[in-house]
Amino acid sequence: MQIRLSWPAGQATATLDDTPTSKALAAVLPITCTAHTWGEEVYFETPVSPALEADARQVVEPGTVAFWTEGDALALPYGPTPISRGDECRLASPCNVLGRVDGDPRVLATVRPGDPIRVETTP
């Protein structure tokens, strides 16, 4: 499944794997949320509350689409966060891995705190 994320300064698409969390997210799309940033990560709350999956990870690659179950939020890291060691993308806690941003994830650097982010499936 592919989703589109759009905000005032840009947009990106992401390809999601077939996981319980990605299915739960797809069921509520489209949604518009308020962006937050944490270091080089964009995150925003969603109306879904999935359980932590068995393969949840805290350290991920830039551009990973992750779901932070503790905050019911999508987390989109594109570089180091305040708790990273070196250049790694370390999330606040283990997150469900849903997929990957297509192309260069650094486009997420144009998201500003408070920006509206729309998430929808692509046709």
How many runs of DSSP E, i.e. beta strands? Answer: 10
Question: Helix coverage percent of residues?
Answer: under 10%
* Helix-strand sequence: EEHEEEEEEEE
Largest β-sheet summary: 10 strands, antiparallel
Intertermini distance: 10 Å
The low-pLDDT segments are: none
What is the structural class?
mainly beta
- Strand fraction band? over 45%
Question: Which shape, going by the Cα principal axes?
Answer: globular
Q: For the residues shown, what is the average pLDDT?
A: 97
**What's the multimeric state?**
single chain
What's the gyration radius in Å?
13 Å
- Number of helices in the DSSP assignment: 1
Question: How would you describe what is shown here?
Answer:
The model has no long low-confidence stretch (mean pLDDT 97). β7 and β8 (73-77) form a beta hairpin. Strands 1, 2, 3, 4, 5, 6, 7, 8, 9 and 10 form a ten-stranded antiparallel sheet that branches. The radius of gyration is 13 Å and the shape is globular. It is built from one helix and ten strands, in the order ββαββββββββ. It has one helix at residues 20-28, and strands at residues 2-7, 10-16, 31-34, 36-37, 41-45, 57-60, 64-68, 73-77, 89-101, 116-121. With 123 residues, it is mostly beta strands.
